[in-house]
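User: Run a structure prediction on this.
Assistant: Running it now.
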Amino acid sequence: MSPMDLLEILNTAGKLKLVMRHCWIDGKRQESTAEHSWRLALMAMLLKDEEELSGINMDRVMEMCLIHDLGEAFTGDIPAFEKKDSDTEKEVNLYESWVSGFPEKQKNHWMNLLNEMEALETEEAQVYKALDKLEALITHNESPIETWLPLEYDLQMTYGRENMKCHPYFETLRAAVDEWTVRKIEEESKE
């Protein structure tokens, strides 16, 4: 890959630093899509050597985590509770159009990752999707509860639950996140 190709790709991907997500980090500012993707990849890296997940190619999962929201560099973020299939289709089409201009080797690799992620048939794709949902729940729990919309109290308990069935580890992790959510809501109701 030429230095100019690399710089052009990084410039476009870097726009994710400016795409704000629905979730608030500390009550003062919203999380960027780049921050979400970074922590999602960090989660995969932290789980790389877990015995329970030893049959899963976590390097591939990390790659999926890093690229999964790059379409938002073109569309911005749409909260899960507002996103329609047509929004997802537009995001994927823009991603594919962008990647089609990559050098051949990178283009093929990134398109193969996208296709695998969309199909959700491999363990790696299923783990990436479970982590994506979990990271959003974790960040939401870290957000001040006064930033939560009324619909998010129920959504926090249901969002991504089906995705956790890919592996017992994620069902256990989800249970811990749910306990945290319940405590957070209970603490808020006491005030």
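The two ends are 57 Å apart (CA to CA).
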